[in-house]
Amino acid sequence: MKTLLFNLPLFADVTKIANDDYVGFTFFVGCMAMMAASAFFFLSMNDFDKKWKTSILVSGLITFIAAVHYWYMRDYWGSVGESPTFFRYVDWVLTVPLMCVEFYLILKVAGAKKSLMWKLIGLSVVMLVTGYLGEAVYRDQAWLWGLISGIAYFVIVYEIWLGSAKKLAVEAGGAILKAHKMLCWFVLVGWAIYPIGYMAGTPGWYDGIFDGLAMDVVYNIGDAINKIGFGLVVYSAAVAARAKA
Ligand SMILES: *C/C=C(C)/C=C/C=C(C)/C=C/C1=C(C)CCCC1(C)C
């Protein structure tokens, strides 16, 4: 039993993080931040009525899924010393669709249909699967897969900023419109960090732009801003809605 436990990744030996290992450091701190955020969302969700409870639960699930993946990525980086691309994309393919669900849940009061949710989820999956193909499988065609991924990203941006999602948000007004707008900014600015990471990680492109700052550092900063920040926007909207009620 003891050997079994100690062979689980949870009890694996801790690897040293060098002073200049920014990737290792941001994986470590990122993991802690995601855990703390999850505890916060899970513990506060019961302070709200049913509608907002679900939204805050989803915020917590997003950071919790990320915390588990960060635990593995931190360990993988420490012991293998390579970018944990596979874990990274599994994390994204679970958490980004949940962010799409978040848009839908917020707009549900204004009559958002499930089809909007599935459309956003479908686009996000296309964006991530093609990104994975360019980053891990067809490295020589990184531009082609990056382009397809970028198009899917732009369609998402269009849909929430100008498309039917926007219309619903305007109809709802108040805290809903405010939260929707903030989340839109996250997608436009916060998510734009990722294609920069992709370009910085593709050999022969911009691998020198940040003075050699690794792609993983860019992705880790992006994740902290987007997953925790996104959840906090939803939390604030719930607080605002409660104050009015
Ligand atoms: C929590 C994780 C999030 C919010 C991840 C978002 C990821 C993206 C928006 C990735 C986008 C990409 C492109 C737009 C083009 C290049 C390939 C990707 C997958 C890095």
How many distinct domains?
1
The third-level CATH topology is Rhopdopsin 7-helix transmembrane proteins
Task: Please give the number of β-strands.
Answer: 0
Strand content: under 5%
Largest sheet features: none
As residue ranges, the low-confidence spans are: none
Distance between the termini: 53 Å
Give the overall form: globular
Rounded radius of gyration (Å): 19 Å
Order of helices and strands: HHHHHHHHHH
CATH class category label:
Mainly Alpha
* Structural class category: mainly alpha
- Bound compounds: retinal
Figure out the total of helices.
10
Structural write-up:
- This protein has 245 residues and is an all-alpha fold.
- It has a single domain, classed as Rhodopsin 7-helix transmembrane proteins (Rhopdopsin 7-helix transmembrane proteins, Up-down Bundle), CATH 1.20.1070.10.
- 78% of the residues lie in helices and 0% in strands.
- It has 10 helices and no strands.
- The chain has helices at residues 2-7, 22-44, 50-80, 85-107, 114-137, 142-161, 164-172, 174-190, 193-201, 215-244.
- Helix 8 (174-190) runs antiparallel to helix 10.
- The chain starts with a helix and ends with a helix.
- The model has no long low-confidence stretch (mean pLDDT 91).
